[in-house]
Amino acid sequence: MKTESNLERVLESGNFAVTAELGPPKSADPEVVKRKARLIKGYADAFNVTDGQTAVVRMASWAACLIQKGEGLEPVVQMTCRDRNRIALQMDVLGAAALGMNNVLCLSGDHMSFGNHPEAKGVYDIDSVQFVKIVKDMRDEKKFQCGEEMKVEPRLFIGAAANPFAAPFEYRPYRLAEKVAAGADFIQTQMVYNVPKFREYMSKVSGMGLDEKVYILAGVGPIKSLGAARYMAANVPGMDVPDKIVDRMKKTPKEKRADEGIKICTEIIQQMREIPGINGVHIMAIEWEEAVPKIVEGAGLDLERNLT
Amino acid sequence: MIGQTQKPLEEILGYLQGKEKVVLVGCGGCATVFHTGGEPEVKEMADTLSKHGKNILATVAPPFGEFTCYAPWSKERLSKYRQEIKECDAILMLSCGDGLQVVRELIIEEEFGLQKPIYPATNPIGHMGGGPSLFKEKCQQCGECELGRLAGICPFTQCPKGFLNGPCGGVTKDGKCEVDPERDCAWVMIYERLKAFGEFDRLREMREPKDWSKMQRPRKIEVAPLSLE
Q1: Do B191 and B116 sit in the same domain of this protein?
Q2: Domain check: are B117 and B145 in the same one?
Q3: In this complex, is the C-beta atom of B184 within 8 Å of any C-beta atom belonging to chain A?
């Protein structure tokens, strides 16, 4: 064990891990975080809190993680390179570890132009691969990016993202290899809807031996409505939602579509469990955290090991 | 070249409020190419400002090729208008910010020993190449050119996130950039080119964080003066 992370413990033990995403509020209200935490507590091994997702100002990930930790959840702090340079990122890595966080997900971050402050100056001093390497060197070499040493290192289980579906498809396993070489311990992927394509990606990943070096959690998410399905299929770059999923939502009566979305998600989880090299799932129920317990129960994922 | 667009007339008139006697200075370099400060634009601006009641003491429009940001040239040209510059209430520069500041600092202040209000008539929008009509930003003068390792395509400039280690997850199905779907993803282009050259393995080397201190502004450089004889 490199860290005291519950996620690392579960993955090391060989259990199929579950992580879930919690979106922090666009306000200073801690009750929102607590309410969501109570909704999903016990249904995952660790809980990511997004860091200004879609470049919209929300409560800082580390702060919401701290609140969630107070509720007894194991947080995964997400950090993006969009808003902080290497100095600020390393400061937050130290701070998060000092606050008792055990997991970090290193991301580049959605571009400012998609958010509610499109006139903001993006930082992007470093990229996500470099960020992974920096956290790894801080933890394992006790060194800052500049080479200076520290006395107490941040013992963080290091995560990175991967999108198997974005172009160029045949390059994506190599992109993953870069993150693994940089020092990622676990990967959380973009939401999987096109299972055959994901299998093809994973077979390349396994062929390269990457699944031996990193834990891979397949991203999944419930679709709430036909509109959401159509939007994701047509308008979200790097997302691959096959027509048959959109059709299935369309054929379902309107009032039953949310349940159908959850059902599709549980079916995809079942398929993920059969794919060699997949060690767990990361459930992203965006602004629909209530769906997480239903998905976990529906997929028959035994989480008794985790109940705290 | 320095890409540039003309400022709205209202903004220019705002600067010149209360200034009656004006000297206009264009540029025979980029501002001529971008139609913001060549001979025709300087003349047109003089006509427009006259209609708004300004007394144009001089219009300085260097011929094509004569860059206003090159101090020896603008010194020589503006010396012919020393009297008008002395008399004017304001100078309007139809050039980029380099041209304006070279004229202000090295000529008006140092050479002529004058203090004069000086205003821009253009908005510079970046160092770019191309033409004769379409120009694109390709280089941001980072001080440490990476093109040799990146198939001749600069991701700091072409990728909105400035990635150094491959494309982000937002590339569209047809290889376009999520931030501007009109534009090809820089990393897809780098990938395709390196693959074609049989140099794909280059992409697999992890590139360390960039030394941005080489872009610490303001930068300067001293060189042997160019002989123009």
Answers
A1: no
A2: no
A3: no
